[in-house]
Amino acid sequence: MSETRVELSLVTFGAAIGACGDSERDRALELFEVMVHSDLEVDAISLNATISAYEKGSEWEKALRLLSDIAKNNMQVSTSNFNTTTSACEKRSQWERALRLSTMVAQTKAEPSTITFNAASSACEKRGEWCKALGLCAVMAQSQIEQNSISLSAAISACEKGRVWERAMQLFDVLVQSKAELNTITCNAA
Fold first, then answer.
1. Which of 10-14, 74-78, 105-109, 136-140 is most confident?
2. Alpha carbon distances (Å) from 11 to 6, 20, 34, 165, 171
3. 61-70, 110-119, 177-186: lowest mean pLDDT where?
4. Which long-range contacts (CB under 8 A, 24 or more apart) does 166-170 make?
5. What letter would DSSP give residue 33?
6. 132, 139, 149, 144: which is closest to 185 by C-alpha?
7. What three-state secondary structure class fits 42?
8. Using one digit for the tens of pLDDT, what is the confidence trace for 142-164?
9. Cα–Cα distance, 95 to 18 (Å, whole number)
10. What phi and psi, each to the nearest 5 degrees, are found at residue 35?
């Protein structure tokens, strides 16, 4: 019987890392480490699959460390990598780190997106950091990044938690005028 050799490629590693899913996060990192130390150049897809494994496991520290290590080694980091890491921080109410990531993305070749700011706004909302949530809305407007119902709802809810109802109503008016989809949570918060 002849022996078949499989050539390892970015696609192979990306698929294997993605297949690890929720239950095999440590294996995903091991595969990522093997890829980093091979002759292959790490791509945004494999990096995102690894960060996503940590996000799903609520391991925001590991996701943040991985993104930081990649950036320090001058490897290409994508908007999607920042979005996934910001989301991992948001899920664990790490609003300061999520906020930092939303500003860091602008310092790289990656472009901040609505998703980046939505995750940071949601993290601020969970902690009642209404000033920070409003600041993110202002940055989005200045940067001409689309504010959608998620962006505005997070800021409205943060204002509601901070008992700043005037600001909540102003944002609600912006949301209504934008013709974005309204939901029960947003209407109740306003």
1. 136-140
2. 12, 14, 14, 50, 44
3. 177-186
4. 167/130, 167/134
5. H
6. 149
7. coil
8. 989 888 888 889 999 999 999 99
9. 27
10. -65, -45
